[in-house]
Structures are given as structure tokens and as C-alpha cells.
Prior knowledge:
By secondary structure, the protein is of the alpha+beta class. The protein has helices spanning 2-49, 53-56, 102-110, 112-120, 133-138, 142-155, 159-168, 183-192, 197-208, 213-226, 251-263; strands at 80-81, 92-98, 125-131, 233-236, 239-240. Helix 6 (142-155) packs antiparallel against helix 7 (159-168), helix 6 crosses helix 10 (213-226) and helix 8 runs antiparallel to helix 9 (197-208). 37% of the residues are buried. The model is unreliable at 28-60 (pLDDT under 50).
Amino acid sequence: AESKKDARQKAAEARAAQQAAEKRRERTVRIVGAVVVIAVVVAIIGGAIFFSKKDADNGGATPDASGATPTGVSTSDYAVTAVPNTPAGVPTVKVYEDFQCPYCKKLEESSGPAMIEQAKAGKINLQWQPGIFMDKNLQNTGSLTATNAWGCAIDANKTIDFHQGVFKLQAPEENVGQPGYTQQQMLDLGKTVGITGDAYTTFESCVTSNKYNTWAANSNAQFDKAGVSSTPSIFVNGKELPNKNLNIYDPAVLLPAIEQAAKQ
């Protein structure tokens, strides 16, 4: 009887050991899976923040001057001026960005309003240089779709409102690139920012015909020309504002830095 009891105990211990081993394997699988997911998310977010010249140089393409350019947009560097008729002599502050870049959204929502206020007050000439490099990184066409539509909104005098609206529609970081902005989102945003009547009909036709795709590509080519290697990047009077140790997401820090850079 004693030997049978020992046998049952040993069998129970063996089953317990096997169950414990299976649980350890399950935990290991879950941990490895979580690490893989985190790595993928980091890779996506990292790609949204940093990119190489190879990714940004548009394959070595040169600007196509035959393409249409939105109303008031420079035909030399293809940048967008936030507030037209800025007084002469004020610093030019150019922001290199991509609508699918999470940190560009962070800049837009933190320091963006303060820079726009400065531009409206005639203290700076605020310009935006849109890029579409994220399309290659994320394997979608979201940046091109959004930039083309923004060009159409610029024609409708909704430059700032549409710019802000696109960033508000940006997918959360963990979903960036899946699937990117859609034309329908852009058409709906046009209505949201107040494009109506005949102006909306023109806007809709502009968006669906991809009228400003060439302009978007031309602007993207300026990133490599300027030596821009990460977004967002801010240039003051043509010189890059070093942001490695500068909190550009705090307007109380950024605006004085811009003012100081303009004096140099």
C-alpha cells in the first residue's frame, strides 16, 4: 500500500512539474511576443521621427517645374507661407515636417499655435516645408494624400485651419501607417474647416484629381537639398536651429531660441 501511495505521489509531482514547465513556456512566448510588438512599434515610431537622406531624397529626383503649385506657394523652394504679406525684415522660420510624423504633430499642438500667433503679429515669417518621405517608410500614400489636399485647401484660403486639422486626424503612434490618411478624410476635413459652395466643389475636384501631387514631390526634394535628416526640423533664416538640447515643444523655450538665432 505504501509503494502505491509513493507511486501516486510521484505521478502527481511529475504532472505538477510538467504543468509548471508548460506555464513557463507560455510566459516566455507571451514575453517574446510582447517584445516583438514593442520592437515593431518602436521601429515605426522611430521611422516617423528619423529618416535617412536615401529615404528623403526622392530617389535623386529633381523638381518638376511643370507641375501645378498652390496659390501663393513659392515656386523656388515650394514652401508654404502661413500668413501672407509678412513685413519685410522679420526672421523666416521654416519648419520641415511630414503629416504622418508623430513628433511633427507634437510640435504642431505644443508650439505651433505660438508660432502662428507670432506670424499673425508680423514678428516672424512662418513657413512650412511639407515632406512625403513617410509614405516610403510606412508603405502607404498618406502623406502624399494629405499634402495634395492641403494644397487644395490653400487655394481655398484655409491654409492654417487645414494644416492643424490634418495633424488632428493623425493616427495614434501605434497605428501610424495603417493605412494612412484617405482622400475621404481630406474631403470631410474640407467641410470641417469651412470650405463650402462653389469653393468646395473646386476643392473636391482638386483633391480627387491629385492636382498637387507634383508639388508635394517637389517640396519633399527640398529636404535633401537642405540637408534635413529628421523631422521636425526648424530653420531660422536658412540656418538650422539645433534642437538636440532644445525643447522645441515648449513655446517658452522655442520662441526665445528663434529670436536669438535671428540675431546671429
